[in-house]
TrEMBL record, chain B:
The keyword Metal-binding applies. PROSITE patterns: 4FE4S_FER_1. One of its GO terms (biological process) is lactate metabolic process. It comes from the Bacteria. Residues 1-24, 454-482, 495-517 are annotated as: Disordered. Residues 459-468 have a biased composition (Basic residues). This is DUF3390 domain-containing protein. The lineage of its organism: Bacteria, Bacillati, Actinomycetota, Actinomycetes, Kitasatosporales. Residues 406-497 form the Lactate utilization protein B C-terminal domain. Residues 328-397 form the 4Fe-4S ferredoxin-type domain.
Length: 255, 517
């Protein structure tokens, strides 16, 4: 069945530009699970920055582009909880042909793995202590529930440690991070403190924008804790297990 | 001792009473430097947040109750005129008098005249958000009438010449030591003084307040309140509280004046039952609040002989005209959204510049007052849109959705209703640069070739990128490192490795060379 369904990867503008490792990890992971991945190059941004800042009219062309780019795919899979939530919750509100239909076909990566493929053991090996931050959009907008946790628990070598105050926002919030920089930073520092308190060597989420914030605070504080996207952990096998995460010097490297 | 202060008990304390903030981010940043305030807030919000979660978890039908609460409120709002007329009939039939106030000034004038008519110059007050909203105490003071707050926390705020910073716990920003100092220094100016050797033990503080307030309860002939609910079918007012001080004000005076927002009406007692479950668990984390006072008009020989209900609009029917924003009128003022909000916890209530702080304030104030001022236009942005407020709201107000809706109003303008007339709002000033950036970003993102070119340029120059950004970007880099731009975008990698043939060849060269260098 996996061979016959058409799966389109929605990489998201943040991952495309800043975190290509995450995109490569999704491709590696899905192909290892026998899924043929398509990448329609006409895709762009989901429009979340514009929409959440109030620029609805600037959002509409991007909603249109999304619906057109992904027409014909059975599933649209994205390694971003907040972009998936933007598409699912807000694209149908635009008077754009196909927007509601594309929204229905859009899944965050862990939803696709657990609900569509029916797997929780993806054959990954990641010999590190990891703490998981359930991002706000993943937790409250998409309702990912324990899907990420179930996937992490089946990763060989991985020790999962609880993050205190896990359900509290990291303070990123898109343009909130600069419009209310003081509050955003305070939230980020509290989150980083909680991460460090776990003793984990890596903090993992389903969203690189949150990780950019948490990682930015951690790095400014000189912390060695690595931010790493869940997809990169799930894609890791014996050979690549030590070489993932933001700021490990592997970004931009070609596998 | 009771006669020491009958006029306007206002001693000038420069810089004590917080003024209206310029905008939310500035006020929040200032609050963030006050470590005592943050510690008080953090302790209080986390304690009540956890207790609420436990109280709600006890009810297996909470989601159904929540849905019922939202549905009842929506139905009320759809036929608000009918319900209010029914309420007016019932209140009048029960011996009360109903007054209609279109705005704050009118409500203040009505209450002032009613108090004047009694010949009194004092009134005791039940904690009330509506009277905070309209600035009733200040209006009464201007007319020579002293209003005494009797809710313990409101008393602390009033004595401290301060403003409330929380809907349920107005003095949440004060700790015990601060309260002791306020009691010691100020109580005597308003009536019975606190003992000179008062400590910060809660029992002692409560006893000082009890003795101070008791003489007010026994002396006052006019009581002023709000109401949590008004039951239309019988004209019954409902006030829920924890201290019993409210009941003193509602039963002892000869004249009772209640100022209530028009959205507080519920059709029947069956509807009330839903809210009497939702409200206490959401606000104080109690299964049932200690005091629920209900009264219907007047009763011979029992309680106030005169009852006046002032129905307050003050922008509410304008909010009703907005199909997205109107859900804010479902609010039952439980303050669960404040207690769970990470932004409120770090900014404090005063940063919101109105009687309604926190997430609910961020959607209510810009609708009731409009987004004309810099402060009010900044309120819809006082959120990371984390959604915790929506999750805990007992009447399912989708606060993040309304926030985004109001952000659209701020930056794009559009039609709104102001005092019953449709008005076309122009986009707020001060967003020109942001608008240009958003437009440029949208244009680029709608042209993937432009994005590719930008990514290539960024990748090639990545060793030169500064660690600290100028302009608005400095707000990020002042406290957080920037991510490094990779040599090759995902798009380019895909082209180079997956699309062999078409375009793949030309795309491969630079990226590889650069990465190996």
């Amino acid at each position: 069945m996996a061979e016959r369904m058409r799966v389109g990867l929605f990489i998201t503008c943040v991952n495309d530009t800043l975190y290509p490792d995450t995109g490569r990890a999704v491709v590696t992971l899905l192909e290892r699970l026998g899924v043929e991945v398509g990448f329609p190059e006409a895709q762009s941004c989901c429009g979340q920055p514009q929409f959440n800042t109030g620029y609805r009219s600037e959002t509409e062309p991007l909603v249109r582009r999304y619906a057109e780019a992904f027409a014909g795919y059975d599933h649209i899979v994205t390694p971003s909880g907040s972009c998936a939530a933007m598409v699912r919750d807000h694209h149908p509100g635009f008077a754009v042909p196909g927007a509601a239909d594309a929204a229905r076909r859009t899944l965050e990566l862990t939803e696709f793995l657990v609900d569509v493929l029916g797997v929780t053991d993806v054959g990954a090996y990641y010999p590190h202590t990891v703490t998981y931050h359930p991002t706000c959009h993943g937790l409250r907008a998409l309702g990912l529930g324990d899907r990420p946790r179930r996937l992490l628990e089946r990763v060989r070598g991985l020790e999962l440690v609880e993050l205190p105050g896990a359900e509290e926002c990291c303070g990123f919030g898109g343009t909130f991070a600069v419009k209310n920089a003081a509050v955003s930073t305070s939230m980020g520092r509290d989150k980083a403190r909680a991460v460090v308190s776990t003793g984990a060597s890596a903090v993992c989420t389903v969203d690189n924008s949150c990780l950019m914030h948490i990682g930015g605070v951690l790095r400014r504080a000189g912390s060695p804790v690595r931010p790493v996207h869940l997809a990169e952990i799930l894609a890791s096998t014996g050979e690549s297990a030590g070489a993932t995460g933001h700021g490990t010097g592997t970004r931009g490297a070609i596998r | 001792m009771s006669g020491t202060f009958l006029g306007m008990p206002r001693r000038a304390v420069p810089g004590n009473r917080p003024g209206a903030p310029r905008d939310f981010p500035t006020a929040a940043e200032a609050a963030g430097r006050n470590t005592t305030l943050l510690e008080n807030l953090r302790h209080a919000t986390h304690t009540i947040r956890d207790k609420r979660a436990r109280a709600v978890a006890e009810l297996s039908d909470w989601p159904e109750l929540r849905a019922a609460g939202a549905a009842i409120k929506d139905e009320v709002l759809l036929r608000l005129d009918d319900h209010l007329e029914r309420l007016e009939e019932a209140v009048t039939a029960a011996g009360g008098t109903v007054h209609w106030a279109a705005d704050a000034d009118e409500a203040n004038r009505i209450v002032t005249e009613l108090v004047h008519a009694t010949g009194e110059t004092e009134a005791i007050k039940v904690k009330s958000m509506a009277t905070q909203e309209i600035g009733l105490n200040e209006a009464l003071a201007g007319a020579g009438i002293t209003a005494y707050e009797t809710d313990l926390a409101e008393l602390i705020v009033q004595l401290g010449d301060d403003l409330p910073s929380h809907i349920l716990v107005p003095a949440i920003h004060r700790n015990r030591a601060e309260i002791r100092d306020i009691f010691r220094e100020r109580m005597g100016e308003w009536g019975r003084a606190a003992p000179g050797d008062l400590t910060d033990r809660p029992a002692e503080l409560a006893e000082a307040a009890r003795l101070h307030l008791r003489e007010k309860f026994l002396r006052a002939r006019v009581g002023i309140s709000g109401a949590n609910f008004m039951v239309a079918e019988t004209g019954t007012m409902v006030v829920v509280e924890s201290e019993g001080n409210g009941r003193m004000c509602l039963t002892l005076p000869e004249t009772l004046i209640s100022v209530v927002g028009i959205e507080k009406v519920v059709p029947t007692w069956r509807d009330l039952e839903v809210f009497l479950q939702l409200l206490p668990r959401s606000s104080t984390a109690e299964r049932m609040n200690p005091y629920t006072t209900m009264w219907t008009g007047t009763t011979e020989g029992d309680g106030p002989r005169e009852f006046h209900l002032v129905l307050l609009d003050n922008g509410r029917t304008d909010v009703l005209a907005d199909t997205v924003g109107r859900q804010a009128l479902r609010c039952i003022r439980c303050s669960a959204c404040l207690n769970v909000c990470p932004v409120y916890e770090r900014a404090g209530g005063h940063a919101y510049g109105s009687a309604y702080p926190g997430p609910i304030g961020a959607i209510l104030t810009p609708q009731l007052r409009g987004v004309g001022s810099e402060l009010d236009a900044s309120l819809p942005y006082a959120s990371s849109l984390c959604g915790a407020c929506y999750e805990v709201c007992p009447v399912a107000i989708d606060i993040p959705r309304v926030l985004v809706h109001l952000r659209e109003r701020v930056v794009e303008g559009g039609e709104v209703t102001v005092r019953g007339s449709r008005v076309r709002l122009r986009p707020a000033r001060g967003h020109a640069a942001e608008r240009a950036v958003m437009r440029a970003a949208r244009w680029a993102l709608d042209h993937p070739g432009v994005v590719r070119a930008g990514q290539r340029a960024a990748g090639r120059t990545r060793r030169l990128h500064p660690r600290r950004l100028p302009g608005p970007g400095a707000a990020w880099t002042a406290s957080r490192d920037l991510p490094e731009v990779p040599a090759e975008s995902f798009r380019r990698w895909w082209r180079r490795t997956r699309e062999a043939g078409a375009g793949g060849g030309t795309a491969s060269g630079d990226g590889q060379r650069e990465d190996r260098s």
